[in-house]
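Provenance

Sequences were taken from public entries as deposited. Structures were produced by running a predictor on each sequence independently, with no templates supplied. The record for Protein MgtC from Ancylobacter mangrovi is shown for reference.
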Amino acid sequence: MPFIESFDPGDFLSTLISLAVAFALGTLIGAERQFRQRTAGLRTNVLVALGACQFVDMAMHLTGPEGAVRVIAYVVSGIGFLGAGVIMKDGANIRGLNTAATLWCSAAVGACAGADLIAQAALLTAFVLAGNTTLRPLVGALERAPRTPESTEATYGVSVVAQAGEAAGLQGRLSDLLEAAQFPVDAIEPQNRPDGKVELRATLINTSVSLKELDAALARVRGLDGVASATWTRSASD
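Predicted structure for Protein MgtC:
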């Protein structure tokens, strides 16, 4: 029988050890995720580590290290699709990024185990657990730290309302004035208003600005011929 002829006790024992290591280390990572009640918990992380381990181990036994390298590349891309499934957008907030990153690391642990890099797999597991546990107090401290608008990144826009006949020539002057004030413009979009005026919406390239300097620049914009009003807006960056 092909199975009996191809069966090698040494290879079988190597696979058993690799899978056992992947199972144990995946359990450590998954237990922490399960305790935190994350979307991908104990079983998911274990299965990811086992699957990555077996694919790499099989390639090692069939084609050697070169084949394993190719399989690892597919494992990395495949886990990317799996991780995307746990990322959800809730309004302006995005949830699941940490869970997806942990799944990626579980796959790396399994791949190390499948490639017989047991020590590296254990080391990576220790760093993953440290990242998900010991860094939590630091994250909490950073979240509680007082912030100013200048210290956080955001998307800034400038809205200028002008007479319809002045809007076309005003776009260039608006861009030049903002550029001179160190507020480069990414794009300017004109929008027709019901009152017959035109609103010029300029998106700034800057993600962190001095609000006093921006107010001063808009004061100069209001002095341009044909400008009825000029205001700025701030929205959270993606």
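The two ends are 59 Å apart (CA to CA).
Strands lie at 88-90, 93-95, 154-162, 185-192, 198-204, 227-236.
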